[in-house]
Amino acid sequence: MVPTYKDDYRAWDLHKSELYKPEQTYQLPTVKFGNSTTFQDDFVPQEIKPRQSGQSFKPSSVVKRSTAPFNGITSHRLDYIPHQLELKFERPKEVYKPTEQRFEDLTTHRYDFQGLIGETAKICRPVHTRVTQNARFEGSTEFRECFQPWEIPPPEVKKVPEYVPPTGSMLLNSTSHLDYVPYQANRILPIRPVSHRRSNNFPFQGKSTMKEDFPAWENCRQGVIKKQQIPNPSGKFDGLSTFRSHYVPHKLIPTESCKPLNIAFKSSVPFDDVTMYSIEYTPKIQEICKASYPSPPGYIFENTNSQGHKFFRKITPAVKSF
To answer: Which GO-annotated molecular functions does the record name (predicted)?
Structure first.
């Protein structure tokens, strides 16, 4: 019996997709390094031409003139459609006629705006009253007229009463003397202990607990240490120093010079004066400038431009047809 799972989910009949990759039949080479590379397959060998002596790769500056007529047809000339121009209307020119009337000098503004008749404006400027020299200058201002000076009364002087000295003797009693009440109090005893000082006739010893516990040591003074003196030299001075007595002279070895000897090198072999310039150089014949001739040989006169320059064309030799 087929189970429910296998009955419901049946396997699809799938076909394997074909490969689009081209089959490459690789053949083993019979010779060592026999397989060619991509560069060797695509490269086309060309013939190598040896360079001749004196050959120049510079392009020639000779202008090659074409014998065929110039084709001046452009896309604009082909597509352009000429239209006939309309005649322009020529307006006749008016002849100026001077007027016989007198010039009134009236403009549009003066003609349209004549103005309304009204009262003349009054001058707001006060009348100028000239002050004569004999008149007295008042010197009054608006501030002085509005703010009149006030009469200030003089300050009252306070009368000081006359000093009357007291009569009788002066009592030297103050408030403290009158209010102080004396009290009877006992004298306070001193808190300092009584010193039991003995009056001895012998001098002060100056002993203390420190001095009794740490008595002084009996030290002997160290004598002066004298170093052994250098004995004075006896006899005649030799003039020898430490450097001279210890110096060992060595024999000087002169250094050899590495500079080559200045001797002319002579060889029996002839000098080889062949250079790259002498090999590749080809002497050329100095030609005379053809512009100096009135009619240069090998050229035919063509025309003259507006500036007076003459143009010549080179004569091409006729090619014989077979």
So the answer is: microtubule binding
